[in-house]
Amino acid sequence: MKTKTKNKAFIDRLLDSNIMISVLVVVLGFLVGTILIILVGKNPANMFSSIFDSMFGIAKRDGTWNFRYVGETLAYSLPYILCGLAMGLPARVGLFNIGAEGQYIMGMTAAQTVALFVAPFPGLWFLCIVAAMIAGSLWGGIVGLLKSKYNVSEVVATIMLNYIALYSSRLICFTHPGASTYNTDPLPAASKLTKFLIPTSNFNVGVFFVILMVLIFYFVINKTKLGFSMRATGYNKYAAKCSGISDVRSITASMLIAGSFAGLAGAIVLLGGAFPNGRIITSMDGYGFMGIAVSLVGNNTAIGNLLAGILFGILKNSQSLMQSRSIPKEITLIIQGLIVVFISLRSGLEIVKQRRLTKKLREEALSK
Amino acid sequence: MNILTQLPTVLMIVSPILIVAIGGMFTERSGVVNIALEGLMGLGACAAASTHYLMETAGFGRYSIIIALLVGAVAGWLFSLIHAVASVDLKADQTISGTGINLLADGLTIFVAQILFNADRTKEYKVGMLTDKLGLYPTAYIAIVVVIVAWFVLYKTPFGMHLRACGEHPAAADSVGINVRLMRYSGVMISGALAGLSGACIVLTQTIQYTSGTIGGRGFIALAAVSFGRWTPLGVAGAAVLFGGAQAFAVISNNIPALTNLPSEYFNILPYAVTLIALIATSGKEYAPKANGIPYEKGAS
User: Fold this and answer.
1) Could you tell me the pLDDT band of residue B252, with boundaries at 50, 70 and 90?
2) How many domains does chain A have?
3) Owning domain of residue A178
4) Which chain B residues touch A340 with a CB distance below 8 Å?
5) Which of A14, A58, B227, B246 is deepest in the core (most CB within 10 A)?
């Protein structure tokens, strides 16, 4: 009898813990991915060894330690973390920001415009980053304004703005010096982000900005009046309004800040990458969309986003190793997609919880 | 160059957008938003391209096209079931579930191509759909049939009336004995099948293989058409023709002397910008089905 109650409590605790559910969802995603790999006749060990190697840089086969992998993994994580934050902050206000991709593109475009048109000086990279954050912020701010003032669904608005951003970016970049169909003149060295700690990889000083943004996210949400207003609006817009909290302010502010996170991600990918030339993108990079998954896994919290972003960076970096070990690299996308699908099924747990509660109450009532 | 000679190209590009937009309309009229249209189109296109290539090489001849179209529709329908289970049974956030399916489709389509063909795209088939005497692809006729049938089903049959009721006021529909769950499942499954069919139409007329760029945002254009067309078959069809036409101009503007200097990006932006402006202009007026996107809980209201 005693063990039974203990057991019950464990399940209840599991259902109540966001962290446990995130872990469970990720494990489930990997499990189904592994089954899929086995079904198509490949060896899942190759998949896990690729992930392991890109995580720690240890090539298990010959025992050498290649630190470059760790650097690449962390470099890939940076835009994921930022785009996760860009999804996470509006989510706390009750908005679904699918627009990180567009904000990312506008940030990247602004950074490239500054890099190519401003005469190079030692701090050019910083100016590029600032420009990117402002551009992304404005692009996100439009959504906030449309949502709060005109009650336009942020989901539809951000999807539209993503594509407007993609084609606007192309139109803007066509005017850049040396523009061809897919790239421009090389970016000046002063605009590139300095390599940091692991010079053989693309890991760069952008990491300090990312850490700063994670801290800003944490403090804004948890320690400021604005953050309190945001969370209040997220819990119940009407109740918040009745207690004098302006939902227009919360919504617009959250989208402005979120846009700056995504814009920064665009700058870091452009200026921190190995590619010397400016880019004219023909399709979306997908960091913004993946940011949705990052934030969902990270429960829209600062630390959660950081960890989930690193997980996604590991998966991204392991793609090339997987492909070389005859595992189709798209399995990582499948796992990530599955994780999001499983998270959406989470609401089913609420139904389970409700049933358990009803059953418990009924039992109690009957025993009396 | 006469603009009429471009009509077959315009119809080739408009038809799939029309088909998937009608699907999007059905699901939203039943009360479920489906932003996974893009991904479902990709799955349909990949399935159709693979089927057609494999059957063509096996010597099935012209039947292979029809079967490929069906397989595309079935693929879209199957994966839309995930969305149906999540949003109808488990009352999930429909945006999250749709995003998940989009991500899943991105990975799964290319994964399948890697397994079947050892490349990040399906193998090129030799002969796709053929045009008729007027130079039109059969997809144009399929699209017209879909619109007419959609109008008839939605407004002239009990099924259509029940479906619309579930999108407006599910509790009221439930109270008069309409099976809300069945209606919403139907809405999502229709959208899935039509999205898959639309993807198959794209891959069999406009290209010779499936790649990661084959769909290129057309599913999202369809979403825009649904809201710009205010959720009615004729409105959505009109919006799809307008938006599809803009896409077509992006492709053929190089052949029209007056437009050669205009970057095609302007045409590409058009559908999205028009929809956004329309949403702002009509803000405050409610054209959308009232219960669109809201899970129905029995006895909650």
Assistant:
1) confident
2) 1
3) 76-307
4) 96, 99-100, 103-104
5) B227
